[in-house]
Write a structure and sequence with these properties.
Blueprint (H helix, E strand, L loop, with lengths): L17 E5 L23 E2 L2 E2 L4 E2 L9 E19 L10 E7 L7 H5 L4 E8 L5 E5 L5 E10 L3 E2 L1 E8 L11 E2 L8 E5 L23 E2 L9 E19 L10 E8 L2 E10 L5 E5 L6 E9 L3 E2 L1 E8 L2
Antiparallel strand pairs: 1-5, 2-3, 4-10, 5-8, 5-9, 5-11, 6-7, 6-9, 12-21, 13-15, 14-20, 15-18, 15-19, 15-21, 16-17, 16-19
């Protein structure tokens, strides 16, 4: 496991990513590249275009050139690593691939993207069939789009673009925002337990559709409690906390508390407060101290679907 895979997938469809164009998708659709979850496969499942694949697959090239797909990152940021997954593609995977990145603000058209300045972040590299190929990236620039190139054609199941979120928060100037949200630059930096699912899910965009899309810990037998720490988008004052236990019917925590942290000191944001299962709770907070991190303690264990910490940036 490469260290960068613990960072968010900036291109993931559920994070707002989109495959905006591709040179060809004759056999399997380009949108599959950024779907959440592992690719699925059922042998001898044939459609009008041949065997059905959970991935992107192009026709056999009979002319010079190579195939490509343009991906808009749902979470613009600094790319730290790429994973190119050829799961289930064996006799039809590309022998080589590369990845380029660009920084194009606003809402560019496909033509404008193709004319943009692109930087190679993964050089042309050999691929094998039915395998994950991790590539560390040392780019350092904020990126909004990536382009996956495969040489000359074939099928790729998934493209994962792991990195650090770098949003443009200037649009919130003078307004409030969710200081914890992944899309605003929040990040879960620690937790007591991630046995069933990742704590990073609690700050993901949108609502959790199932309990698997939240954070759930194992059952505690030691008398302690579980917790996670969220690094906020920036130093700010939290005014409203949303603690969501949606989908967690028999495994929600009994109580929750929130503690702000900044410059080595801690201060109470929300005292230990009772929770209900399968419920979206909203708590107004009265303090005016700015926090850079917030610790969420759940008692004694269980799961949360989402945590939203609405407030204002202080600097």
């Amino acid at each position: 496991m490469n260290a960068f895979t613990s960072l968010p997938d900036l291109a993931l469809r559920t994070h707002g990513g989109s495959v905006v164009a591709a040179s060809d998708e004759s056999f399997a659709e380009k949108e599959s590249l950024i779907r959440p979850g592992r690719p699925a496969f059922q042998p001898h499942t044939f459609g009008a275009r041949g065997q059905v694949y959970d991935g992107w697959e192009t026709r056999r090239r009979r002319e010079p050139g190579h195939d490509w797909a343009l991906v808009r990152l749902g979470l613009p940021g600094v790319v730290r690593g790429i994973v190119i997954d050829t799961a289930w593609f064996t006799g039809n995977h590309p022998p080589y691939a590369s990845v380029e990145a660009a920084s194009v603000e606003g809402y560019p058209t496909v033509a404008e993207l193709r004319a943009a300045e692109w930087t190679e972040i993964v050089p042309r590299s050999a691929l094998t069939g039915d395998a994950e190929h991790p590539f560390e990236v040392a780019d350092g620039h904020r990126r909004t789009h990536v382009r996956l190139n495969m040489f000359p054609d074939g099928g790729i199941a998934r493209l994962r673009v792991h990195g650090e979120v770098r949003p443009d928060l200037s649009v919130y100037e003078g307004l409030g925002l969710d200081l914890a949200a992944l899309e605003n630059g929040g990040l879960v930096t620690g937790c007591s337990d991630d046995f069933y699912s990742s704590p990073g899910n609690v700050i993901a965009p949108g609502s959790a559709r199932t309990q698997a899309e939240g954070w759930e810990t194992r059952r505690r037998r030691d008398g302690g409690n579980d917790w996670l720490v969220i690094r906020l988008a920036g130093a700010g004052v939290v005014k409203l906390a949303e603690i969501d236990t949606t989908n967690l019917v028999f495994n929600a925590p009994g109580w929750v508390s929130l503690t702000g942290m900044a410059d080595g000191r801690e201060f109470e944001l929300l005292p230990r407060t009772r929770l209900q299962p399968d419920t979206r709770h909203r708590f107004r907070l009265d303090g005016d101290a700015a926090a850079t991190h917030v610790r969420v303690d759940v008692y004694p264990d269980g799961g949360l679907a989402r945590v939203r910490l609405h407030g204002v940036l202080s600097r």
